[in-house]
Amino acid sequence: MEDTLRRFLLVALLVGVLAGIEYFTTIDVPGFDLGDAGDPLFESVELPEVDVPALPLPEREPQSSSVEGEIEGPHVRVVSWNLYNFGRTKDDREIAVAAQTLRDFDLVAVQEVVTSPPGAQAIGKLDAELDRTGFAWDYRISDPTTGPGTERYAFLWKPSRVRLVGQAWLETSLADAIDREPYLARFEHRKTGQRILVASLHAVPSSKDPEHEIALLDRLHRRYEADHVILLGDFNLDEDHSAFNELRRLGYQAVLDDQRTSLKRTRDPGPNGHLASEYDNVFYETGPLRAVRGGVLDFTPQFSSLKEARSLSDHLPVFMDVQWTTPAPATP
């Protein structure tokens, strides 16, 4: 009886082991049917619901400029941006957005750089951030302007596309008449040797009658008649104002027409409800130059609110893709 019981227990143990092997693996044990092993070892149970806090989404990377498409023939992509008190107040995120906005251009003119050391340091950071976008960049920053509301200007450019000819300079001939005298530089197209003279200006605020300063800009044309002049910046004035009449008479034309470029403090309904005034523009000499394309770069969608966007700038960048109307001189 004792031997029979022992054999029965041994067989039961063997059946249990074989059932476990087939249940937990895909091995087929000859002569053994898992269905004979009884009920499954595990049952499903319902767990109580637990509120899991939502994790923050990763910060959206700044996107590159939306201006795309090939242009036939030699050209330079020029952009102007009033970067509003550009200096210590700009953090790494804001400088990264600025670089991504400007990355597709060849030549950048910046207005409203603070005169203290953080202003020059911020331009250096912007240059370094642009270097990380795939092209090497270079820059020059002006001395402080001499009149009330003093600030610095800056130029940044891709040396692979354009070359700075000589030195950039503040226009001393206008220093007594214009509070923030223009910053000028000649640039040469690398492949063709064709040149442009770029004059960057931040006029006095609209409350201080910027038309008096704008009316003097024709002096730059007369002083540099041998150059092909581009006047750009924050004019604090609509391009239709009569202060630009003398420039128009000399053959200059605005790239933007009825395009608001400054930002409001609060957004109104509509796609352009965040835009306020037609202040920024590019004027070019229509005889030797041609505007292939022009417009604004709306960087505000890179921020979660208009208030945050204004912390980078209260102006949109304005741009022009410029070509020469005459062929490049033949190289010997």
CATH-wise, what's the superfamily of the largest domain? Endonuclease/exonuclease/phosphatase
Radius of gyration over all CA atoms, rounded:
34 Å
Largest sheet: 6 strands, mixed
CATH class call of the largest domain: Alpha Beta
Amino- and carboxy-terminal Cα gap: 118 Å
Q: Fill in the CATH topology of the largest domain.
A: Deoxyribonuclease I, Chain A
How many β-strand stretches? 12
Order of SSEs, N→C?
HEHEHEEEEEHHEHEEEHE
In short:
α2 (92-102) packs across α3 (117-131).
Give a written overview of the molecule.
The longest helix has 23 residues, at 2-24. Helix 2 (92-102) crosses helix 3. 21% of the residues lie in helices and 25% in strands. The chain has helices at 2-24, 92-102, 117-131, 211-214, 218-223, 245-249, 306-312; strands at residues 76-86, 107-113, 138-141, 152-157, 162-170, 183-189, 195-202, 229-234, 252-254, 280-285, 289-296, 318-324. The model is unreliable at 15-66 (pLDDT under 50). A 6-stranded mixed sheet has the order 3-4-2-1-12-11. A 6-stranded mixed sheet has the order 5-6-7-8-10-9. Strand 6 (183-189) and strand 7 form a beta hairpin. It has 7 helices and 12 strands. It folds into 2 domains: 2-37; 76-324, 4-Layer Sandwich (Deoxyribonuclease I, Chain A), CATH 3.60.10. The chain has 332 residues and is an alpha+beta fold.
